[in-house]
Amino acid sequence: MRLMLVFGIIIGAACVGATETEGVRRLMVPSYDIVDNDDGVVISFPSSLLLSGATTSGSSSEDTQFRVQRGSSDEHFVGTADGEEQTLNVILRDDQIVVGSIVDEKDGNVYKLSTNASGDLEATVTHTSEFPPEVDAKELEIVDDKYNPPVRHLRAQTSGNFRERGLQTNCPLNVVDVLVLWSADAECQESGFSAGCTRSPATEQKIRDLIDLAIAETNTAYEYSGVRVDGEFAKLNLAHAYYEPTFYDKSDIGDMIQFISRSSVIDAKRTEYAADVVKAITGENNSCGQAYVGPRIDIMHSVTSIDCATGHYTFGHGIGLNMGARADRGSYNSCWTSKYHYGFRDPAGRFRTILATDCRTGQCDKNSSNSCTRVQRFSNDEFLYNGSPIGGESVDNARQHSDVFATVSAYYQCIPVTEIPTSTPTANPNKTPSSMPSIAVTEIPTSMPTIAVCTESELIIDLTTDRFPDETKWTVENSSGNVIAENPPLYEIDSTTTKICLTTGCYTFEITDTYGDGICCEFGFGEYTVTFDGNEKKKGDQFAYSESVEFCTEISELPSESPTANPNESPNGSPTSSESPTNVCFDSVLGLSAGSNATCPVISANIGYCDYSSVQSHCPVICDSCVQFRCADSTLAWNYGGDSYTCQQLSNFPDSDLESYCLLEAFYSTCRETCNTCNV
Would the pTM count as exceeding 0.70? Predict the structure, then answer.
């Protein structure tokens, strides 16, 4: 049931098992105190907050006190009230609770705490029986060991295309990196707004705080349950969290998990941030979530409803399924198997672990209740919970996690790289280089470079790679067997277009994959297209080891007679000269100073950066922003001659120098307004 708390007065049904109360869900908590004393940090709430009436022994009946300690991050605190039947997790910032959860095992209520726009603390109260169920985990059949090839890391350690870990940079095997994305509706809902609300920095911060809490709750559960790797407690590291505009809420959660596992945009983001696991947060609440059962590198995906992510611990539940853990034996009717990867339900029906489904009578585990509270533990054979077993040798989610954590952690290498900025650099930096690099006179063209036009037959090769580009290669051979063209350097989940001008003759295009699994679809959704003189000759993706196509240029017919040496008539007038195009749009050819010299082709493989107007100004073609930036300067700093500059600096040069620089593609493609590119 959901109940309204206003200044300590409970409005609605006040007994466990009553029907759900209709009305406002985000409700004010009257007050709370945070005291740091010799015994640690104590957070006190009015006793009326907890419907079970729990209070601290020896204290005023007006308070429920939680003794907390620092948890898995500097801002996370976790603890219990006396009796340890109420658990509190909070994120504290500036001595204020910004987000939190209370789980009361005594009466089965879960309290979701958050702050409103005025900074007041609010609570949503949901009885554990009222949470929607997690949809059955998706288990994909493994045929002929197809998905168990030799381990292949997704990037070589020499690659420089990764974000730095938020937690550590030496890639410890007890740390799994998580990419978290969310829908617009989830962001609106977390701030108490209806779907389709106007998103803002404030709404974004609230969902980021919730994600931080979800990570912290899961990491604490690992520690409390003894999930270890090489003697160290397992940890999730938030590699990156972001709003994904292509991810929409749908009534069928199966459609959502299928989308995130097949989306090339999300897959590229996963590769960019070296994320071992992908989690999506939805505002849809028909179910608490769904996940693929792993571990398998291509299906480490789960979707969680924002209502269930914290307090109900569905965030960790989904990732647990990715790790190969299962729900309880009773719901699987597997009480006699020797496998140990199951969750635990207390036989007396008092509690269940994070992977377990709600208690039900009449199942093989002989549970005595039809509802039990989920507690912040994974089943294990090492610890007790309030004096009671919470697993055993044959019921041990913690062991399953420990068995596979290092394998999952090694899915991606982690190598730090400077992040592309999300804001425009200062127009006038404090330190301006004294001059641009000198340019040899021979480098300066006498006119704006012209675009080469193929007067013969044109071959175009479009290729999108999977996660193993080193295995892929293409060539074009002439009829003599000589290679006349081959692929450029290839990168993971990257798209390239190669144009080749061919003379008269016959040719063979061949694409190969040394591993024998083509470029789709186990490790990314790659594909290729061969277009010749405007006609598609071949398109493919799943081609095992190789695939090829042959084609020939057309030979023009010779004229039947020689042209007249002196035609009788002269043309009526001079031919009309071709007009210069009026809508030419250029991407900058220069790399970004703050993006490891990333160029626009790199941005095209990480298209999410095009959400930022500064990146749009640098790469208007790739970011589809020519209308706004075709004639505008790039607002980002760029590299040239080993130093960093901006178009503002270039505009301050003397006209004579500026004219020389603007003849070079590096500058007229980047500083379009300064170089008057549109009017040349």
Answer: no
In DSSP terms, 111 is beta-bridged to 102, 125
Angle between helices 314-322 and 201-225 (to 10 degrees): 60
- Asked if the model's pLDDT at residue 452 lies above 70, the reply is no
What's the whole-number average pLDDT of the chain? 78
Q: Which residues of 198-235 are buried (b: 16+ CB within 10 A; e: fewer)?
A: eeeeebbebbbbbbbbbbbbbbbbbebbbbbbeeebbb
Burial class (CB in 10 A: 0-12, 13-18, 19+), 511: buried
Q: What is the dihedral of CA 383, 389, 394, 397, to 10 degrees?
A: -50
Q: Which of 420, 464, 414, 461 is nearest to 605 (CA)?
A: 464
Cα 83 to the center of its chain, rounded Å: 40
pLDDT tens-digit map of 404-415: 999 999 888 654
528: tokens are 């290729």
The token pair at 239 is: 């590699």
C-alpha–C-alpha distance, residues 373 and 353, integer Å: 9
Token reading at 317: 């539940």
User: Is pLDDT at 143 greater than 70 in this prediction?
Assistant: no
Amino acid identity for residue 428 in this structure: N
Q: How far apart are CA 50 and CA 379, in angstroms?
A: 27
Burial class (CB in 10 A: 0-12, 13-18, 19+), 434: exposed
pLDDT above 50 for 600: yes
Q: Where are the beta strands (DSSP E) in 329-456?
A: 351-352, 373-374, 384-385, 388-389
Distance CA 277, CA 212 (A): 16
Secondary element (H or E) of residue 254: helix 253-262
Q: For residue 71, which of 177, 175, 217, 173 has the smallest C-alpha distance?
A: 217
pLDDT digits (tens, 9 = 90+) for 650-665: 888 888 778 878 888 8
Gap between the Cα atoms of 246 and 624, Å rounded: 16
Residue type, 542: Q
Own/partner pairs for 82-87, CB < 8 Å, 24+ apart?
82/56, 82/57, 83/54, 84/386, 85/54, 85/386, 86/50, 86/52, 86/54, 87/375, 87/376
| pLDDT value at residue 515 | 85
User: Distance between CA 12 and CA 1 in Å, rounded?
Assistant: 9
Cα–Cα distance measured from residue 21 to residue 1, given in angstroms and rounded to the nearest whole number: 6
Is there a contact between 374 and 351 (Cβ–Cβ < 8 Å)?
A: yes
φ/ψ (deg, to 5) at 655: -55, -40
DSSP state of 494: -
Spatial distance between the Cα atoms of 321 and 294, rounded to a whole number of angstroms: 7
For CA atoms 38, 42, 47, 50, give the dihedral sign: negative
- What proportions of the chain, in percent to the nearest 5, are helix, strand and coil? 20, 25, 55
Sequence-distant contacts of 31-35: CB under 8 A, at least 24 apart: 32/97, 32/121, 34/92, 34/95, 34/97
DSSP 424: P
Could you check whether the bond before residue 433 is cis, i.e. omega within 30 degrees of 0? no
- Name the pLDDT band for 521 (thresholds 50, 70, 90): confident
Distance between CA atoms of 100 and 45, rounded to whole angstroms? 13
In three-state secondary structure terms, 535 is strand
Do residues 400 and 355 touch, judged by C-beta distance below 8 A?
no
Counting residues of the chain whose pLDDT is more than 90, the rounded percentage is 39
Q: What is the dihedral of CA 327, 328, 333, 336, to 10 degrees?
A: 120
493: alpha, beta or left? (left if phi > 0; alpha if psi -120 to 50) = left
- Per the document, the length of the chain is 680
